Amino acid sequence: MSILLLVIVFLGVVLFELPELIQKRYWRELITVTFLLSIGFILSLLLAMGIEVPNPSNALVYIFKEVLHLSYP
Q1: 16 CB-near residues (< 8 Å, 6+ apart)
Q2: Is-above-0.70 flag for pTM?
């Protein structure tokens, strides 16, 4: 049930936002909004399905410590 509600909400957002962007030919904004909505939908869908989503701050810590070799107290 929660997955169906999630799909309906995201579909409503898409139907409300995208036609105006297409009509005004805002192609960069259209790509950005589509990309961000896709990420949000995928993460929300994974959470609704009960799949554990990793914490994004762990990735940032890895990048700063291991890749860039920066240490902060």
Answers
A1: none
A2: yes
Domain that holds residue 63: 2-67
Q: Is residue 28 part of a domain?
A: yes
The CA-atom distances, in angstroms, between 39 and each of 4, 10, 50, 65 are 18, 11, 17, 26
| 46 belongs to a structural domain | yes
Count of alpha carbons within 13 angstroms of residue 32, beta-carbon side? 5
Nearest Cα neighbor of 2 from 50, 55, 53, 54 is 50
- Tens of pLDDT along 32-73? 999 999 999 999 999 999 999 988 898 888 888 888 887 765
Half-sphere exposure of 52 (CA within 13 A, CB side): 2
